[in-house]
Amino acid sequence: MVRRTKNEALVTREKILDAAEWCYRTYGVSRTTMVLIAARADCTRGAIYWHFSKPLNIFQAVLDRGRIPLLERLRDVSLASPPVMPRLRQCLYQCLCDIQDNERVRNVLEILAFRYDFAGDTLLFRELQQYEAERMMILLRHIFADAKEAGELRDLCPASCASLVGFALVGAVRLYLMGPVEADSMQEARGALDLAFELVQTDAYRCGFVG
């Protein structure tokens, strides 16, 4: 009986998070209320408060479910031995695959990009996004500096190469989220990354060739 009750509680929690995710995408974060979430989840507000003490906790849990471990993956690439460009390219491809194949990931990114106005208590998540964006660029610059030292880059500034690839990734993902979920759209995003890598890598390392 205890196990059944625990399992039922977990099911209810997921229903609440599914409902909150839908409401955030439909109404926007600042306009989503406990009443809307409860109606969508077909439960009482008391049930929601039993799992989450305040709305901010629901928002955090929704984000956690759709998080891509990009920083962790970039950190692994930054610690790897040369050649690093093929590893970096594969790392960024994996992020694109996660977005294409995982609906929760897509929903969370869409919420953060288009349904989140940084109002009220959720303002702190803007600072977190800024921190993660800064960390991404720091890691990319470190990776490209290592690539430059290993002879994997053309005669270009590693920091500028990092900006090119980072901006290509962010821009491609944002445009992908704005359109219908289609494989061709993600192929275009991957093509943008391919072009960025082709522009900065030496001939020996183009197209992922490692010797």
Description:
This protein has 211 residues and is mainly alpha-helical. The chain has two domains: 2-64, Arc Repressor Mutant, subunit A (Orthogonal Bundle); 66-208, Tetracycline Repressor, domain 2, CATH 1.10.357.10. It contains ten helices and no strands. It has helices at 2-27, 34-41, 45-51, 55-65, 70-79, 85-101, 103-114, 124-149, 158-178, 183-200. The termini are far apart. Residues 207-211 have low confidence and may be disordered.
What is the overall pLDDT average? Answer: 88
Q: What is the global morphology?
A: elongated
**Distance N to C terminus:** 61 Å
Q: Which homologous superfamily in CATH is the superfamily of the largest domain?
A: Tetracycline Repressor, domain 2
How many beta-strand elements? Answer: 0
What letter string, H or E per element, gives the SSE order?
HHHHHHHHHH
CATH architectural label of the largest domain:
Orthogonal Bundle
Q: Rg, please?
A: 20 Å
> Could you say which structural class the secondary elements and strand pairing correspond to?
mainly alpha
The CATH topology assignment of the largest domain is Tetracycline Repressor, domain 2
Keyword list:
2 domains; elongated; 211 residues; Arc Repressor Mutant, subunit A; 74% helix; mainly alpha; 10 helices; Tetracycline Repressor, domain 2
How do the helices and strands line up, and which of them pair or pack?
Blueprint: H1 2-27, H2 34-41, H3 45-51, H4 55-65, H5 70-79, H6 85-101, H7 103-114, H8 124-149, H9 158-178, H10 183-200
